[in-house]
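Quarterly update from the structural biology core.
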Amino acid sequence: MRRLLALRQDQQLTTRHVRLMAQSLEVTERTVWRWLASAEHDESAAAEPGARAQSKDRFSVTPEVRRLLALWKGNVAAVHRELTARAARGEGDPPPSIPTLHRAIHRDLTPGERAGFAGGERAARKHDVFRRPRGWRNQVWETDHVQAPVLVDVEGRARRPWITWFTDCATNAITGVAVTPVHPSRESVLAALRSAVLREGPYGPFGGLPENVRVDRGKDFLSRTVTAAFDLLDVTVEDLPAYTPHLKGTVEGLNRAVESMFLTALPGYARQPRPGKRPSRPKDEVLLGFEDFTARRCWTGHGGGTPSTGRRRCGAGLRLRRGRTIPPRCGTCRLRICRRSPWRTPAPARSRPAESALGSVTTWVRG
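Predicted structure, tokenized:
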């Protein structure tokens, strides 16, 4: 909404911008125009478009109501009787009606808090364990490095490649990917960021400019070069505390899903059980080349979705839904994908040179 306000102040706002915002938020264009008019006079309306304006006369849950809910184990009628008895003794104001008290509790308390008052901490964990409210497309991205547990042939040597990707928390779409045969650096981060920001061919349709990006204190993500790139794109970098992978659960779930749904079926999988006590792989095992590994693109998002809404119809095999994954099917790896969209032949991988501490290596970028 603030970007629409900036475009309006510069006299560059068009109906196309409003229509795109309405399609992204799944509301009508008239609603976006109404939000824009409210945001011009109220800063809180720009931060939370569509939120109900606070009224001084509306009843809200107070700390005393919370204490009574905990005392009476979430019984709203008992809390109302207690407040009425206190008002009769002159110890407070008369309480509102029971329906008004019910509405205030459902509005001001989360489902986890209501379940916690009624059933204790174990009941609250079913609702509030590391759950964040789902936002809109390109509101928050998460990025991470993951070392693929697959041995590939890199110039005659068996190596485990590294994957750097960006994922959208609202749509669970993989917006940008870069694969390197050696340890990732700021160059792989910039390559993945470039493929995530660009939306025209051969990139897209997912991508764009995010508002926030969550990182996990990695030095390559927080380097001066990468930070300058984020500042140039007007992107806020959220540096998460140490040892808190649950704060970026979308990309962490993606790291686990790509291994269980795709990498386990590839030759050279490093974590497969070995017969007997043999710890190493067989000497006659044929490994994939680095180019062949990057050509298997069912984990990079090669189909489905529309640029207008950002919904992932095909899924490319790795869409997450409430902590689970939709099984894919691809013509390359013979896995299973969404039945609503036709299978598309994966495009050939592109390689570009990138300088690293080990000399000139090859970095594969999506597209």
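The first helix runs from residue 2 to 9.
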